Amino acid sequence: MRLANSLATALSIAALSLSTSLIFPLSASAQDATTKKPATSDAKSLDELLERTRTARARDNRINAARIAKFKAARDQQASLLATAEREKANAEAESATLGKQFEANEKTLTELQDSLKIKTGNLGELFGVLRQTAGDFSSVARNSLISAQYNERIAKIDQLAQTKTLPPMEDIEAFWFEMQREMTETGKITRFKASVADAGGIESAKTVTRIGPFVAIADGNYLEFKPGVNALTSPPKQPEGDAAELAKNFSAATEGYQRMVVDPTRGVLLGLLAQRPGLKQRIAVGGWEAIVILGVGFIGAVAAIYQFIYLNIISFKVNRQLAHIKKLSANNPLGRVLLSFKGDKAPAAGDEAEVVELRISEAVLRELPPIERFQSLIKLVVAAGPLLGLVGTVLGMIETFQSITESGSSDPKLMAAGIGKAMIATVLGLGIAIPLLFVNAALASRSKRIIQILDEQSTGLLAETLEARAATHNGASGTGGPGVAAATPSTPMSVRKTRIDPTPTPDDFGGAPARG
CA-CA distance, 431 to 225, in Å (whole number)? Predict the structure, then answer.
């Protein structure tokens, strides 16, 4: 029984120790690890089990006491921290109250000072408002002015004056007045200055810029564009052609004296439109193959007209010289060749009838006509074909215009511009080759008719001389003068008149000449 009671008592103590270790869990340490071992793991007897149970209980009491002391120390520390935070909070609230009172006092003082400032400024406040408004208006003017490309630092100063909320000092007001006066003064000046110019590719380079008032700026003979947003000068991708380009080059190279120059009052808008205007090559390209055909026909007519005009001038000069030396006939001109055809061995025989002699003279004159009237038919054909070819191009251009309208379903001017441009270019080119060649052909016809008239007059005089000589010979042989007395034959044609052919056409040249007999 005692042994059973002792065993029961030991088991009760072991259960109590186990329940105590579960109620107060220990931290993860070396000691905790040892307490986790069962109290009876190595016990070999009840006495040893009892001793180990007593030792474990004492150890747990020591650990629990240490933990309780630690908790109390942490509790005292937290209380100290809480007290410190409460003291800081109280100090911050006190400081906040002080600053609030100071802020209210400052607000009151500021309001009193502003009211006092308004009273003291009086009319200066109204002046300040006008100054700000004027500075704002002038800021936009200066920003878009070409003069700002030379004085680009003034934009920031004017903007600052326009946006300020305080009364500006007298120096700023005087500087603003100076900028307005300089804008008016520079408007009437032509100035050269160094500036950075960007080309079409965006590459900047320092160049000498010539500014003509606020209207035009040029550099190296090229017009420049002013970019208001960045206050920069740029070279446009396409320059105006013709007289405008020539004037810019001459003005850029001039160093003194008066020079003619383009002035654009729209600050670059008109020059931009002028640069976009197509040149002669672009217009011909718009006309298409019709324009090329018209120009080809006109070129042929022009070459023929120039060649014939030079030829007739040479012939006119030779005929004039032949008339001045009528006794010395030469075969290098039509008149000399016609007169030589009835001299010497080629003179008509005594038995030839008058009609035969007249026919031979007409034959000699007709032999000279083809070179004199050469190319006139071709030029007339070109004059007639030019407007017709232009009409063909006009019709084809209108067909393209109507096709674009049909395809797009709208009458957009941009879609119609190509066809209408082609039609108008063809019409202009057709008339352009016909009208000049019409006058040239009239001048050539008048010049050739005058030469032919001289040939007819001289040949008719030669025929009259021949017939008069033959009649005188016949009368001398049968008249009172006796046999063997014959009239002398003059060595110079009686009807030859020294008519000079002026190589320069006169107004009468276009009125025609007397018809050939």
Answer: 38
The three state secondary structure string of 104-152 is: HHHHHHHHHHHHHHHHHHCHHHHHHHHHHHHHHHHHHHHHCCHHHHCCC
Instruction: Give the CA count within 13 Å in the CB-facing half-sphere of 166.
Output: 4
The Cα 348–Cα 346 span in angstroms is 6
DSSP letters, 263-319, are --TTTTHHHHHHHHS--HHHHHHHHHHHHHHHHHHHHHHHHHHHHHHHHHHHHHHHH
Query: Do the beta carbons of residue 261 and residue 190 sit within 8 Å?
Result: no
Comparing CA positions, the residue from 45, 52, 41 lying closest to residue 13 is: 52
CB 507 within 8 A of CB 477: no
Question: 339 phi and psi, to 5 degrees?
Answer: -70, -35
Secondary structure element (H or E) that encloses residue 452, with its range? helix 413-478
> CA-CA distance, 465 to 135, in Å (whole number)?
102
With tokens 């190589």, the residue in question is 503
Tokens of 472: 């005188």
Note the pTM of the prediction, 2 decimals.
Answer: 0.49
List the strands of the sheet with 204-212, edge to edge. Answer: 222-223, 216-219, 204-212, 190-198, 232-234, 225-227
- 215-239 per-position pLDDT tens digit: 888 888 888 888 876 778 888 888 8
Q: Pull the structure tokens for residue 248.
A: 């810019």
Hunting for tokens 């052919």 — which residue is that?
501
Q: What is the pLDDT of residues 83-130, one digit of tens each?
A: 888 888 889 998 999 999 999 999 999 998 888 877 776 666 677 788
Q: Which of 95, 137, 497 is nearest to 322 (CA)?
A: 497
Instruction: Spell 329-340 as b/e; 16+ CB within 10 A means b.
Output: beeebbbbbbbe
Query: What token pair was written down for 9?
Result: 């008592």
Q: Output the CA torsion 186→191→192→195 (10° steps).
A: 20
Using CA atoms of 47, 52, 54, 58 in order, give the dihedral in degrees to the nearest 10: 160
Of residues 208, 188, 203, the one with CA closest to residue 254? 208
Q: How many CB atoms lie within 10 A of CB 435?
A: 13
Closest CA to 372 of 311, 305, 302: 311
Query: At what angle are helices 280-324 and 413-478 packed, to 10 degrees?
Result: 10
Q: Estimate the crossing angle of helix 170-186 against helix 123-143, to 10 degrees.
A: 40
Containing 418, the helix (H) or strand (E) segment is helix 413-478
Q: Phi/psi zone of residue 231: left (φ > 0), alpha (ψ -120 to 50 degrees), beta?
A: left
Question: Which one-letter DSSP state was computed for residue 168?
Answer: P
Residues 265/407, Cβ–Cβ less than 8 Å: no
| Lowest-pLDDT choice from 1-5, 103-107, 490-494 | 490-494
Cβ count within 10 A of residue 382: 24
User: Whole-angstrom Cα distance, residue 382 to residue 444?
Assistant: 15
Phi-psi region of 448 (alpha: psi -120 to 50; beta: other; left: phi over 0): alpha
